[in-house]
Amino acid sequence: MLAAAAAVVLFLMPSVVETYPLIILSHMLVFAIACLGFNLAYGTAGMLSLGHATFFGVAAYSGAFLYRFSAVEAFELYLVCGVVFSTACAAVIGFFCSRTTKIFFSILTLAFSMIVYSLVINGAVFRLFGGVGWGLYLLGGGSMYLPRLTLLGTQYDPIEFVAAFYNVIVVAFLASALALWRISVSPFGQALKAIRDNDTRAAFIGIPVRAYRWYAFIYSGAVTGLAGSLYGQLARQITPDQLHWLFSAHMVVASLLGGTRHFLGPVLGAFAFVGLDEVASHWTVGRYMMFGLLVILVVLVFPQGIAGGLEAVAAKLKALQAWRKHNQG
């Protein structure tokens, strides 16, 4: 019932808030999808990836290339293209990375991420499309512009597009959250948690550790790619920064802020991260210093993550209520 109420509130936001706050909320939801995808690998399966920006950026770039070198103007095809390529990329990278564990896994994901980043930043990917592709690289230095695509065959004007695309993002967020929640409570999800806690014991009781890590990595990359495709249309400016490992670090920080052991922790962390960044943007000088101070403040207030802190507060209120009933009795 709470989830249904939250969904209703999200869908009602376009009629309540102005355009700019709606854009910020859209960014929060897209980043929340990315963090949910990342946390399937980290919080559920115990794999700290420093290369999830690869799947985010690959999805955005592949859809942009589809638009530039074909007659496709439908957002639906752009989205499918991005998710397919990011999933394929996650399958290839995960095949090698799942053979390692702990810090070696993190280093390997980082290495693959920087390889993909370098292929874009030096124009190697653009050269695959011949002279037109190379000219596109020289024009934007690796960045690509994406216009407003059609949504279900409808071309919206700029103001109407914000509200219409926000609803698309809400549907994607709810679908992603539901799918990942189902995975987390399924036998497969429970097996991933067993691998996270003790992979040796999990192997001894018959869980195919390497295969399950690979599957989790693929699912994680697909969801992160979904977020990347949505962000490409939301920002309409696709840059190599979306492939850089620092963007992966943003997902790590946001997930840790929210709490990686709680399903909604990455969502709360993503909202907090984007909100803190928006507050810090009011300082033209020292923006990143202010952002760092705000993050430190949140960590000090919620040492177990925002979700863990709220859970602790709820437990104390419940205990206080029980104590008052006991005294009244």
Task: Please describe what this structure looks like.
The chain has 329 residues and is an all-alpha fold. It has a single domain, classed as ABC transporter involved in vitamin B12 uptake, BtuC. The two termini are 31 Å apart. The chain is built from 15 helices and two strands. Helix 2 packs across helix 13.
Notable characteristics:
single chain; 329 residues; mainly alpha; ABC transporter involved in vitamin B12 uptake, BtuC; two-stranded antiparallel ribbon; 2 strands; 1% strand; globular
Helix content: over 70%
Query: What is the average of the pLDDT values?
Result: 90
Spatial sequence of strands, sheet with the most strands:
1-2
Tally of extended strands? Answer: 2
Through-space gap between termini: 31 Å
Reported CATH architecture = Orthogonal Bundle
Let me know the largest β-sheet.
2 strands, antiparallel
What is the class in the CATH system?
Mainly Alpha
Classify the secondary structure makeup into a structural class.
Answer: mainly alpha
CATH topology: ABC transporter involved in vitamin B12 uptake, BtuC
How much of the polypeptide forms β-strand, as a percent range? under 5%
Order of helices and strands: HHHHHHHEHHHHEHHHH
Tally of individual domains: 1
| Tally of separate helices | 15
Rg over C-alpha atoms, rounded to the nearest angstrom: 21 Å
Instruction: State the assembly state of the protein chains.
Output: single chain
Low-confidence stretches: none
